[in-house]
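Quick entry between incubations.
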Amino acid sequence: MAATSIGTARRRRDGEPKVRGTTRFTGDLQIHGLLHGRLVLAGDAHARLNGVDAAAALALPGVVAVLTAADLPLRPGAGGRAGLPLARDEILWSGQPVALVVGESEAAAEDGAGLVVVDAEPLPAVLDLEAAIEAGSPPARVHAAPAVDGGAAGAHGAPDDEATADAHGAAGAGGSEQAPSSPNVVTQRRMTGGDAAAGLAAAAVVVSGRFRTPWVHQGYLEPQVAVAWTEPDGELVVHASTQGAFALRQSLSSLLGLPLDKIRVRPGVIGGAFGGKLALLEPLVAAAAVKLRRPLRLALARSEDFAATNPAPAQLIELELGATAEGRLTALRGRVVADRGAVADMGVEAISTALCAGPYAWPAHDLKAVGVLTNRVGAGAYRAPGAPPAAFALETLLDELAQRLGLDPIELRLRNVLTAGDRGIDGQEVAVLGARECLEALREHPLWSGRGALPAGEGVGVALGFWPGGLEPAAAICRLDADGRLTIVTAAADMSGVENAFATIAAETFGLAEDDVRVATGDTSSAPYGGVSGGSKVTYTYGRAVERAAAEARERLLRIASAELEIAPEDLEVADGEVRPLGAPGRAIKLADLAARTLSFGSPHEPIEGYGGVAQVSRAPGAAAHLSHVRVDVETGAVTPVAHVIAQDVGRALNPALVDGQLMGGSAQGLGWALLEELAYDEDGQLRSGSFAEYALPSFDVVPPIETLLVEVPAPDGPFGAKGVGEPPVVAAPPAVANAVAAAVGVRLRTLPMTPSRVWAALEDAR
Amino acid sequence: MAATSIGTARRRRDGEPKVRGTTRFTGDLQIHGLLHGRLVLAGDAHARLNGVDAAAALALPGVVAVLTAADLPLRPGAGGRAGLPLARDEILWSGQPVALVVGESEAAAEDGAGLVVVDAEPLPAVLDLEAAIEAGSPPARVHAAPAVDGGAAGAHGAPDDEATADAHGAAGAGGSEQAPSSPNVVTQRRMTGGDAAAGLAAAAVVVSGRFRTPWVHQGYLEPQVAVAWTEPDGELVVHASTQGAFALRQSLSSLLGLPLDKIRVRPGVIGGAFGGKLALLEPLVAAAAVKLRRPLRLALARSEDFAATNPAPAQLIELELGATAEGRLTALRGRVVADRGAVADMGVEAISTALCAGPYAWPAHDLKAVGVLTNRVGAGAYRAPGAPPAAFALETLLDELAQRLGLDPIELRLRNVLTAGDRGIDGQEVAVLGARECLEALREHPLWSGRGALPAGEGVGVALGFWPGGLEPAAAICRLDADGRLTIVTAAADMSGVENAFATIAAETFGLAEDDVRVATGDTSSAPYGGVSGGSKVTYTYGRAVERAAAEARERLLRIASAELEIAPEDLEVADGEVRPLGAPGRAIKLADLAARTLSFGSPHEPIEGYGGVAQVSRAPGAAAHLSHVRVDVETGAVTPVAHVIAQDVGRALNPALVDGQLMGGSAQGLGWALLEELAYDEDGQLRSGSFAEYALPSFDVVPPIETLLVEVPAPDGPFGAKGVGEPPVVAAPPAVANAVAAAVGVRLRTLPMTPSRVWAALEDAR
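Done. Structure below.
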């Protein structure tokens, strides 16, 4: 065999073109006759929509149309957010799209949008999550009850909480519970096992807390954008920055009533998504393009993206847990309330509730998940949906528990962490999990062992995060071209350097250099099927399909080489771009020669190609443990991260450079959750942080050096042992910081982000 | 099983959109910033090119550039026609592109082209095929000797005569012969077997003749067109009306020096090709788009297409053959001279020579193939390249032989026709061939048996044609979509209703209704490999790949249905859009349900997809016999076809309606060869028939009712026994007409087309 590609650090393939600016994003597409859309966003947080006066806008030169909900050719009854791209009868949040102004130019559309008058009659707005669940709360929606189960199912592919949990990899457990306490409580679910009350009663120590986390935006660099047009034969083409081409096609088919084969979704290059780019703008843009019979682009401005898309929702988590004096956990009890915003078809409460158990063994649990409507933007998925809030609550309490028990926090976790053969609260047996190994890796780290010698106001915190990993079928084809290079084709969205992962897997499997593998993305017309890029499952599912496709092509290659060389396939090896007879390298044939001979008139050989389809049935959960070293300014409450270490079980690091990048990016986003990020609204429900000036993403002056420790506990069904690595690293960064703050200055924060004012207030309380 | 799709007549899928005008052809593509090209064509037939004065053109508003050969970024040494898209140093034919004027609009380019001044110094022009091969002929090319073998090989994929023959299905035989008799003879090849001289000497009867056929244009409705642009990342995209996407990509890679994966060929819908659309305009358009960094379209006007493309070349065939008194053929001797025009990389002389033997057994043969340069447009492929002239010579002489021997012409052919197990003059054993069955079908036809009772001036002629069938690897993938419909993906060009054939094959193999199969064409970036659509091999090769892909998908389907139903796969059947347990139809699952369940989050099933790759190693030659009934006006020489019957071995008629269409279309084109079509040039080499006003395609007032007899001798390796049917029907129509003329009025024509003046002259000679 040639030198292995696996485990070799290589640059991201999409890096150079993105840095050079030669990548063509969806918004860069140049289309003949393209129209431009601009949204008219609602001002009120909740109002009766009496009408839209478009006369002045339509009078502007260059304005082609002003579309409202009634103008869109959507199937009646199409539910959920996708079925309601523009407000109908009722305005549900400040920032909701009410009309789409279409112009011959961006400027015309923009000017037109400024002239549209929305006639709305204010209604009581439901803005506070805790007030929303009170029995006496006014309803956040008056006209139409949201269809949480059923109607919207086909549209998003992930309509209700159960499906959403599945999409991102969690297995829901337990039954539903009816009797909502307020008109805004749209889902309630209870998950129980054992006798939690007895477990808590029998515990030597019980700790509890009430945790709040805010609305957080995914912060992708490329705002939401979509382009759509119809071909003369009626085919609808949608070029979109989407995480799921086939899922989007399905959604559009349901919404527009078009057969699947009359819709072609071309997955564009994605400028960041993190869960937020799943059929959001496309229904509107597609419907408008069908209506107007012209190509249309809608590209949100940054402020619109903050106000009108689908960020991670606010959560309220109440949790109590107990342990024996030896530090054995006895029971977990609590409630997870998640805001669904005004559009109810996406919620994180179920998965977040399940994740409150962490990767630990619980003799008993009693957890309740509550999904709540408010007059806020609809909730969406963001890297490990629901996991950071759950980990913030659980891991903070575990830290407190260790403190109360006088146990080393890592030791407490090691005594309870799930390992292979254990069962989680969902009752499923854990196949392989490297959580223990991650904790052990941190225990040996000098930052942990040396934490006692830090100056005053500094501290080190530890926390463990967990992500169950998603499953969805995927397929790939591969083709040896006449130049001896291999082409891999999938429908996987361009995200997180998947091109590299596929190339590494194919190169290793087929037996050529990674640079001789090209990775192509097909559209829904011609690519093999593949699921949504989300839930940390692309490498685990698509990657496995790529491995199979390359293996099948290699078999064909050896069969053909065997015929040409008259040597049995088992006596041949593929290396360095050649097929070589073992022991007779002088008779080697170059792949390019073999391929060119095969792909020609009269060739007696079939193409050297392969197909791989896969349905993983075993999950490959990921775990990541963090050490956070912070310095707290007791005068101002400012928390400064000094150092950060993450140990993550990555299964097998196909390309350590890219895996490191995921771990660093996830940790950085976790620091954003911990210290900075919050979509802040005023008392009228108006967004106050609608730009990166007000919405504080962690930048390089905030993020400390991040040290990554790659723990490799191979996933049996992953390609070369690899598993998804995208979501785990964000999960436990916030509690690691919170625990570091506690270690530094002795106060425990219950609300994210841990802003200077909150820390200062906590210090004041403690003083 | 459901009712079979095989053998059921169905409409062409591409028919309705083409009739309605909703098909988007390459020339209809709307591209942002598109530039338009217009060619400056040479006036002289042969000249030294001293320069091009573009100043006046460049001064015109809207003219962007005037490109000449030196401006194109083609690799030095790139040979053949593809390497010489614009004249360099020397003008080789009247009509040769000398410059490309590029404008912001068609009108600007057109106006600019009118202002370009070509400075050329006339050279002696070689215009007559017979004079061109004389030792004293001036050379048709002065500056550069054409590279017949070698240099151009990579570019066209079919550079020399051997490869060309292969491309269209013939196996060359015999060795090359050097020592050209004139500077214009660029290839000579002799094919021998047995002792032809002895065979002729021993024959009871010998007949001979000298036959001439003209340059004939393919007459496609859509003139040549190509569009190209470069993406910001440097990828060259070529959208072309081409018969071979992968072959074109290979050619462009060689010419432009770009890696294969930096070129994406998007095969567009083809508005007729018949062999003429193989990398002709694309090298120029691609090179210009790379040079100008702007999207560019070049769409030829009809007159340009007549003057500057690649029609079938003129031929001169001298043949003599002998037979015993019992009508056993003894020997065949002769020479086939084919014009290659001014660009030498495509010639039909080798295959035409091989086809002069027809589908008959010859104890001895001695044939010479000669390829000749002249100052005419370069030769190209046209439906069964070289076959109609060969059949015209051979089948006319056989008719004469039968007359001399007093044998029924069909009986004479039956005594000598090849059947399974016989060997052709190439020495290959014939596997399966339905030529005999075709003759037998005609022998029973009332038109044949009743031919003795026709009025004066009318006659019926018979002739048999043959096409060896091409081979080239091909592949397909298929995918069951969530709506229960099957998608087939190949790189096969849209020609001749292949969508129907693929759908029929897939439907029958998989087990669903043909309407539930969609056929998609992929581009070279993501489609599995496939060869050129030519040589009557698409159904035979791609079709077989489709069958395999559908079979593999069906296996997956049954495996998944088996798991869902807990019934063994062998106890399941697929029919009417369902998987049904045998004997328990009530437990059937709809394909759509199964597919939707499979293609979803958490599905335990891999996608229901399949891959099929194929390399046919056995040829499936086709044969077609014609009866032509004509009326000859002895006063004017006008020949009027009265009726026409074609009996063709089609292997298995997957869709009789489409097969009938091929037989009728081929017969009609054969009538054009016989009676009407000729690219006529004046004594200066100027084309006189540059429009459909002068170039007479057979129209409906000329073509008589054509009766088709589908003879089904299954091809063992064809999908469901099918074989290629495109080329055989054109081959023997001309000699059938010629033999009918002889039967009607007793004169034998040796030159095509058999115009009234030629027939009248022959009648005069005979009177």
